[in-house]
Amino acid sequence: MNEETFSDEILMRFADGELDPDTVARIEQAMEIDDRLVTRIAMFIETRAQAQAALKPLLDEPVPEKLVAAVEQMIEAKRAGEKTEASVLPFGGGRIAGPPSRSQWMLPIAASLAAAVVGGLAGYWAAGTNERTPGGLWVAGVIRPALAQALATVESGKEIRLAGISDRFRAIATFRNDAQDLCREFEVDSQDRSTVVSVACRSGDEWRVSFAVVAPGDAGGYAPASSTEALDAYLSAIEAGAPMSAEEEGQALDEVRRKDRK
Amino acid sequence: MPEKTDRVQDQLIAFLPNLRRFAIALCRSRDMADDLVQRACERALANEQRFEQRTRFDAWMFKILRNLWIDDIRRRKVAGPQDDIDERHDIAGISGEREMEARLALNSVAQAIGELAGDQRDVLLLVCVEELSYKEAAEVLAVPIGTVMSRLARARKNLAEATGISMAPTRSAVTKGASK
């Protein structure tokens, strides 16, 4: 009789109860005569049990009162009604062409967000020196070459100075939105002004800014928490996927650059 | 829309211990974990209407928290060199890390989990500790279910090796493990 061999993954699925009944039956049969198979399965059962036991104390640990109070307060504020809610407007308002689901988003944001200054973004870059006019880095969501180039080349975690402008550009993350468009989260700060926390997504063959918050900054290098809260809410709203690994990002950006060259 | 969104609000407090455990395991610092949990709750509340009743609440929360954490790592990696030492101390949670290590010193399995590669650790936490299904874990991690399985199998082999949990030295352990 041919002894059937089972892969580790199959045995793990068996141990985790994630296997179809037929295969389960075959494994159970094989276990009767194959001790090594039993040992291999036991490893998966054992590691699960041990991992659970090891982290059980963390679950039993009392949650700090401060944290509970903070969350309770947030829930209260939320329940208290819509009066205190502010709305963060999407960049460019209705000017961004695209699916309505993305341009229409409105966020119910608690009072804590009031610190994030939002608005006047179209004029933000334009207000600078002459070479930035008209429109600076982006106009109505369409991105200028220097920024587009940075978006297509700078890997997340790296910072550069934008060509021709002295603004610092930091790539934070790359991910896909609910429409599977490639998106990049980034920050730009200029010497004289504050940091802009922003998200741009590929739309056809170009990048479009879909979100931007001006973080009132001390040019200290990164955006204060209040503006990243707005960002978090936005990312959640577009159902942003998990940030890509460096490898995935490299491939995605390669593709963008290939298209740009055409 | 607000009428039918009570669920997240109602479940949040009761879920804090789990969410916090997951956060501590991710960032290995209680201070950072508490901050992360708070922000995850804030984001969840702001997006309550996005929560679909057919998804598991815990999976949804884990996903929010983990994405925040990944974002933090990226941000910190960038910001790091510009910080002064005091700031870096806070941000990197140096004291928090020591505290965690001290508290877990007697728990070699927990330590071994903490030493797993991030990818493997996350899937182990979600499936083995928080008891999500493979499919739910795949959704939280935004990876295919096959990836969940290969990472999880590797995580458990590594954990078994690190902690001396008995396992058969099989050929497939080498070939299968290396092939993916």
TrEMBL record, chain A:
Segments traversing the membrane:
105-127
Region ranges (Disordered): 243-262
Species of provenance: Mesorhizobium temperatum
For this UniProt record, the keywords arranged alphabetically read as follows: Membrane, Transmembrane, Transmembrane helix
Which protein, by its recorded name, is this? Anti-sigma factor
Automatic annotation (TrEMBL), chain B:
List, alphabetically, the InterPro entries matched.
Answer: PhyR_sigma2, RNA_pol_sigma-70-like, RNA_pol_sigma-70_dom, RNA_pol_sigma70_r4_t2, RNA_pol_sigma_r2, RNA_pol_sigma_r3/r4-like, WH-like_DNA-bd_sf
Q: Which domain of life is it from?
A: Bacteria
| Record carries keyword Transcription | yes
Q: Domain RNA polymerase sigma factor 70 region 4 type spans what residues? A: 108-159
Q: Per UniProt, what is one GO molecular function of this protein?
A: DNA binding
Q: Which UniProt keywords apply?
A: Sigma factor, Transcription, Transcription regulation
Q: Name one Pfam family in it.
A: PhyR_sigma2
Which positions fall inside the PhyR sigma2 domain? 15-65
Swiss-Prot/TrEMBL GO biological process terms = DNA-templated transcription initiation
Database matches in NCBIfam families: sigma70-ECF
Family as reported in the entry's similarity comment: Belongs to the sigma-70 factor family. ECF subfamily.
- Can you name this protein? RNA polymerase subunit sigma-70
Q: Write down the species.
A: Mesorhizobium temperatum
